[in-house]
């Protein structure tokens, strides 16, 4: 581990490992196959990059996306580490040149896509290499229970037999429920004792769910208040992306867009504009972002509710990868549920629909819970006993809760009287006393119209709240039905109260730091000259640390977070000069 710490300081500019990083690296260096579950921004990459430098031979990194490979290789080369990738963006001649460098020992880490391993000729080439470590990034793609299952990942384990001595294997992911972790371990034959979970909390992120907002107005106002900050806005459909993009473009915002309906060349152009800080805001479907290593994203906003908690946390986790405070905002509307059900119904693999519907219910509950939002998420991933974060929209809402026990009893009673075999919408209509033809048969019930002081939409939202509180449960299916839980029976019998409060709207206005803006300008100029994204030069966290420490010489500059020997030599004089001038 002493050698590992020296490599950490020399190449990456950090003095110590985080606790779980150290345990994982020690395990890998002792040739133990390992699963590392660590949240986005937690430093997963170092868990295989440091062993790659410490071990003899080549490290193969299996990665799902071209953009992810390019970002990682750019970052490693910037730190003076010989790395390369092979994917469909390279010509046959370029692939041959990379493999020549690998065979000659000129490459320490080689990034490849899982589909590449289905090529017999490529696998024969691998047989002749001294491979000491195989890193499987985004390992949740292996699991049929994962939110982003990729069949090609299921064949990775077959290459382990290419060498007389099997390389050490490390699988890494940010989003794995207990089911997914178990599936990964079973397929890769990883001992459960070699699973390391750092916890899923992201302490630098603030979570909010806003219901009933005028979404367009809110987005405009928020971005106006955060003019210098980079952010991502996720939307559920291509049509929504185009609409939001046009709205922001017409408002004079430097905006980019990304969705599956665009030509690949156009998508790449827009993605590069965002990565290179030429566009402040990226508006995209979930097709964007996996493996995007842009560290200075200060906010991620979901214009509509996503399909499941895994997708939401992975997408929201693209904020604040540098560890600085960032916001994750979900703008919820009841129509989002229908949109996601429609998208799930279009799935090619019909066998996965019941799993996806079950996952959808969890994100619906998240949008209606009044518990701590961060705790709700991490408990979903099996991280029990987590304390409240103290800063999410729910934790920060200091208004007193209202006793809604009587209204809750009326809803639960109605569900029982309707036989506990109908869905949320028709139940809400019965309670509202709707004259809809579908509810005529229920006019004889004593609960018909018993909540007519509310409209059907408000009642449906109240039912969602009761589901989130687990007083009502959902039987999933194409037409989900609701029924009363054991806890709900306690409410019916007046054995417990139900308290509820409204959601608070909140936004943050950030003040500019003149030195930070000056350093950011220098970073952008260097990045343009080198043809790399600005965060490859230095992260926002490094720039903020420069502002705090005000280094005046090379020795002091080396104490800045993220400054290693290579970056001191390449960039130190420019930033030191700017700081001296500012002082």
SSE layout and pairing:
Elements: H1 2-12, H2 19-29, E1 34-37, H3 46-54, E2 58-62, H4 66-78, E3 83-86, H5 92-103, E4 109-112, H6 120-127, E5 131-136, E6 168-173, H7 178-188, E7 195-197, E8 205-211, H8 215-225, E9 230-234, H9 238-250, E10 255-258, H10 264-275, E11 281-284, E12 297-302, H11 309-316, E13 326-332, H12 335-345, H13 353-368, H14 373-380, H15 393-396, E14 402-403, H16 405-417, H17 424-432, H18 456-468, E15 472-475, E16 481-484, H19 486-492, E17 499-500, H20 514-530, H21 534-537, H22 540-549, H23 554-557, H24 565-582
Parallel strand pairs: 1-6, 1-7, 2-4, 2-5, 3-4, 5-6, 8-13, 9-11, 9-12, 10-11, 12-13
Antiparallel strand pairs: 14-17, 15-16
Helix pairs in contact: 1-3, 2-3, 12-13, 13-18, 16-17, 16-19, 17-18, 20-22, 20-24
GO molecular function: 3'-5' DNA helicase activity; ATP binding; DNA binding; four-way junction helicase activity; hydrolase activity; metal ion binding
Pfam family, one: RQC
Cofactor: Zn(2+); Mg(2+)
């Amino acid at each position: 581990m002493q050698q590992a710490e020296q490599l950490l300081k020399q190449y990456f500019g950090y003095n110590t490992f985080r606790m779980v990083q150290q345990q994982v690296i020690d395990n890998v260096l002792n040739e133990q196959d390992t699963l590392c579950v660590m949240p986005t921004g937690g430093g997963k990459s170092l868990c295989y990059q440091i062993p790659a430098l410490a071990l003899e031979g080549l490290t193969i990194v299996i990665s799902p996306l071209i953009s992810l490979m390019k970002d990682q290789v750019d970052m490693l080369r910037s730190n003076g580490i010989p790395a390369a990738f092979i994917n469909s963006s390279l010509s046959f001649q370029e692939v041959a040149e990379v493999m020549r460098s690998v065979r000659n020992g000129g490459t320490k880490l080689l990034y490849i896509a899982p589909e590449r391993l289905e090529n017999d000729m490529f696998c024969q080439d691998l047989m002749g290499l001294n491979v000491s470590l195989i890193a499987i990034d985004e390992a949740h793609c292996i699991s049929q229970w994962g939110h982003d299952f990729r069949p090609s990942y299921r064949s990775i384990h077959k290459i382990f037999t290419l060498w007389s001595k099997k390389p050490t294997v490390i699988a890494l992911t940010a989003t794995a429920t207990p089911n997914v972790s178990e599936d990964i371990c079973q397929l890769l034959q990883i001992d459960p004792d070699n699973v390391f979970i750092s916890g899923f909390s992201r302490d630098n992120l603030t979570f909010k769910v806003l219901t009933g907002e005028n979404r367009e107005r809110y987005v405009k106002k928020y971005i106006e208040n955060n003019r210098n900050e980079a952010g991502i806005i996720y939307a559920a459909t291509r049509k929504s992306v185009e609409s939001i993009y046009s709205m922001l473009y017409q408002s004079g915002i430097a905006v980019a867009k990304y969705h599956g309906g665009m030509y690949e060349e156009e998508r790449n152009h827009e993605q590069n504009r965002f990565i290179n800080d030429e566009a402040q805001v990226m508006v995209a479907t979930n097709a964007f972002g996996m493996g995007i290593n842009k560290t200075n994203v200060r906010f991620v906003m979901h214009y509509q509710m996503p399909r499941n908690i895994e997708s939401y946390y992975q997408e929201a986790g693209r904020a604040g990868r540098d560890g600085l405070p960032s916001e994750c905002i979900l703008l919820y509307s009841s129509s989002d549920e229908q949109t996601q059900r429609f998208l799930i119904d279009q799935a090619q693999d019909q066998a996965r629909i019941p799993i996806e519907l079950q996952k959808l219910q969890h994100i619906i509950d998240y949008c209606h819970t009044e518990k701590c939002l961060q705790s709700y998420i991490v408990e979903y991933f099996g991280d029990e006993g987590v304390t409240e974060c103290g800063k999410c929209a729910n934790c920060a809402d200091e208004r007193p809760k209202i006793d809604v026990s009587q209204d809750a009893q009326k809803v639960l009673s109605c569900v029982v009287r309707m036989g506990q075999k109908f869905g949320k919408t028709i139940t809400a209509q019965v309670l509202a006393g709707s004259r809809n033809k579908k509810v005529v048969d229920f006019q004889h019930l004593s609960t018909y119209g018993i909540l007519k002081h509310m409209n059907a939409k408000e009642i449906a939202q109240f039912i969602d709240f009761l589901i989130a509180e687990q007083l009502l449960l959902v039987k999933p299916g194409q037409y989900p039905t609701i029924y009363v839980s054991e806890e709900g029976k306690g409410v019916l019998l007046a054995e417990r109260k139900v308290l509820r409060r409204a959601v608070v709207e909140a936004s943050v206005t950030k003040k500019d730091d003149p030195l930070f803006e000056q350093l950011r300008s220098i970073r952008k100029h260097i990045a343009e000259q080198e043809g790399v994204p600005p965060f490859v030069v230095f992260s926002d966290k490094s720039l903020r640390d420069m502002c705090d420490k005000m280094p005046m010489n090379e020795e002091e500059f080396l104490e800045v977070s993220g400054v290693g020997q290579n970056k001191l030599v390449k960039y130190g004089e420019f930033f030191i000069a700017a700081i001296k001038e500012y002082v």
